[in-house]
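The protein record filed here:
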Amino acid sequence: MPELPEVEVVRRGLAEHVVGRVIESVAVTHPRSVRRHLGGSADLIARLTGRKVDSVARRGKFLWLTFADQEDALVVHLGMSGQMLVQAADVPLEKHAHIRAALSDGTELRFVDQRTFGGWALAPLVEVDGTSVPEPVAHIARDPLDPRFDAASVIRLIRGRQSEIKRVLLDQSMVSGIGNIYADEALWRARVHGGRSAASLSRLTVRGLLTEVGVVMSEALDVGGTSFDALYVNVNGQSGYFGRSLAVYGRENEPCSRCGAPIIRERFMNRSSYSCPRCQPKPRRR
């Protein structure tokens, strides 16, 4: 699934192309793409038509559009394969384009989703820690690239958990935006094995780990994120190139760029974890 850098790339593209535009009409061609909107397709269409996009915001991996009237927000769930594309109206429709919004500048905002795990939904805005966010996002913590991210508080929370540090990093209510790829990359950079107990780590180690999270996601953002296939693209359909810079993720049996030891893959939460056995020794079992 797309992580913070990929979602931020999409947010920036949308901010450039849709803010200030009016949604003149909406078409929904797949019911699963609006299943999170309780009123269904007709209600979503009626409530979006005629509204002016005011901003495009993000928290962690969550993305939403706000409107000039500030009544609610359009929460965009990208799921595993969702794309937000801005196309000229005469560009042939993509095979899996399930929602189309015609904009006042003659372009279309298209939601393309091959696996149909994503979708659009309108949700009320609520105040959380002095920030207005959609109600479904209220439980999501700030991410390391948020200017108001409180590292000291997050460090205390992390060190209070007995769970494996990688599991804690993936908890979006603890710190948001981190997924499997960037957790593995940051852990490698910090020389920490993902199986270590969060409570066993020193404050200095956790602070260093969070710093590496921010650095690796910033580096990924600079090159458009990580695209392993054609499903992860920005609003112009372009892929990201950080996959070429990954140190451990997806590199099983390849030499560690730091010490030369073969990268290993381990099973973790129905997915895979990648690490260097020499730079990131496993914790001793009690």
Remarks:
- The longest strand covers residues 119-128.
- DSSP finds six helices and eleven strands in the chain.
